Amino acid sequence: MTINHAIPNGKAVTIRTTFSRETSIRIDIKSTPAVVWALLTNAPDYPRWNPSVIFIEGIIAPGEKIKLKSALDPKRTFKLRVQEFEPQQKLVWGDGQGSRTYTLSDNKKGITTFSMVEKIGGFMFPLYAKYIPPFDASFEQFASGLKKEAEAIINTK
Amino acid sequence: MLNMTPEQFTTEFEEIRRQLKSYILRITASIADTEDIVQDTYIKALEKLETFRGDSTLKTWLFTIASNHAKDNLRAKKRWVENVTDLSREAALSDPTFFQESMRIRMTSPQGQFEIKEHIAFCFTCIGKSLPLEQQICLLLKEIYDFKVREIAVILELTEPMVKYHLHTGRTTMVSIFDGRCALINKQGVCDQCSELNGIFNPKQKIQEELVKIEMAREAGNADKERLFDLRMEVVRGIDPFESNAAELQLHHLEHNSKVMEKYLEKNPM
After folding, report:
1. Which pLDDT does position B76 carry in this prediction?
2. Closest Cα of chain A to B172: distance in Å?
């Protein structure tokens, strides 16, 4: 799996074009891919550790449909489909307007590099882009929440 | 290879039986299923005695067999809900036979006392059944039955990181549930059943005098949520749900709660 190490650790980066917007974040987590994956794929447990998520309904599994409500836009419920599911490596979910990709990389030193990329866009993007709030702060909350939780878990005695 | 004779095994099994019984009861909430599973564990272990090499302790080995039986038993059954005690209370209030039987046990059984500590342990069992099964089992094995993470990994055939995941997630969830629900530790807690039932079964007792005997209740204003949960676990560790002075009364309550949950989950599939 390719992780873009040019992205600073824990800081979201957004690239805008006329027809798209892509936000990325990368963070090193002192935990195992198995633990990070368990957190990412346990839908009902998200609100407990992830301040950017209000709820996720459904089962995060290949081909499944889920409903997600984000703290960034609490009035909307996103209906998403799990498009790719490679245990402990890659998870992708999305809808017609875009997709979010989670990638885990085990660097074998007790550290898992987590990256999250969301790309939205299309021909109509210029018409509605201004109504979509920036993702950067939400991404940073997500990543730091995941890091904190995964590291607390691995340090459990 | 260990050469344990069936007689030696049976002697050792009897020393572990009480713990196995209470463990399986806390997972299944069914006396009948507990008796069956403990018996099946004994039979299976005896059949496979030659395969026990001493890589783990006998206790770990027996808990492994018992846990597998319990998981099979619960595979098709739904988890309970967090507010099981509220729903069970409502059902009890509308069923005169429930309290009639409770009072009969209270008046006639040598194991019919009502003690707040016993009810704390009972409540932990009920609310523990609202966790995903792996979380409940990991929490019981670690907090109540004193297994280490590596032993739990053997019992449940999980990696140690995944045991830690289930332990942490289960414990965090339970701490949060009790913080919101339990009036013994939080004045805003929605459930006051321990005090309420104590008033019914021990009307001459003064509740504050009883609560002050329980460290968890004494520390409620001072200690943080994690410490209060540790104190709750100390209470649960000290109770054998089959042997205690309140066993018959609490088992009657547990059967009642099980029936309430069965009906509720049929009508409210999740």
Report:
1. 86
2. 9
* CATH number listed for the domain at residues B1-77: 1.10.1740.10
Stretch (H or E) spanning A55: strand A53-57
User: In chain B, which residues have their Cβ closer than 8 Å to the Cβ of A31?
Assistant: 161
pLDDT tier at B2, thresholds 50, 70, 90: low
Q: Is the pLDDT of residue A1 over 60?
A: no
The identity of residue A103, as a single letter, is T
Q: Which of A35, A50, A106, A156 to mutate to test the interface with B (most CBs of B within 10 A)?
A: A156
Residue A5 maps to a domain: no
Asked if residues A93 and A99 have their Cβ atoms less than 8 Å apart, the reply is yes
Which pLDDT score is estimated for A14? 95
Half-sphere exposure of B186 (CA within 13 A, CB side): 16
Mean pLDDT (chain A) is 93
**Is B161 in contact with A39 (Cβ distance < 8 A)?**
no
A38:B165 CB<8 A: yes
* Residue A150 included in any domain: yes
Instruction: Give the residue extent of every domain in chain B.
Output: 1-77, 79-267
Question: What DSSP state is assigned to residue A130?
Answer: G
Which DSSP symbol is given to B142?
I
Strands of the A90-95 sheet, one edge to the other: A13-16, A20-29, A112-121, A98-106, A90-95, A78-86, A65-70, A53-57
Instruction: Tell me the residue range of the domain where A123 lies.
Output: 38-154
- What are the tokens at A121? 């866009």
Is the minimum CB–CB distance between B225 and chain A shorter than 8 Å? Answer: no
Q: What CATH number has the domain bearing residue A72?
A: 3.30.530.20
- Chain Cα centroid distance, residue B253: 13
Give CA–CA dist B166/A35, Å, rounded: 10
Residue A75: inside a domain, yes or no? yes
Q: What's the confidence (pLDDT) of residue B40?
A: 97
The structural domain count of chain A equals 1
CA atoms within 13 A on the CB side of A20: 11
Instruction: Note whether residue A102 is domain-resident.
Output: yes
Mean pLDDT of chain B: 94
- Is-above-0.80 flag for pTM? yes
- How many CB pairs below 8 A link A and B? 32
Q: Work out the minimum CA distance from A24 to partner chain B, whole angstroms.
A: 26
Interface test with A, best of B169, B226, B270 (most A CBs within 10 A): B169
Search chain B and give the residue with CA nearest A110: B161
The torsion defined by the Cα of A143, A145, A147 and A150, in degrees rounded to 10, comes to -130
- DSSP conformation class of A119: E
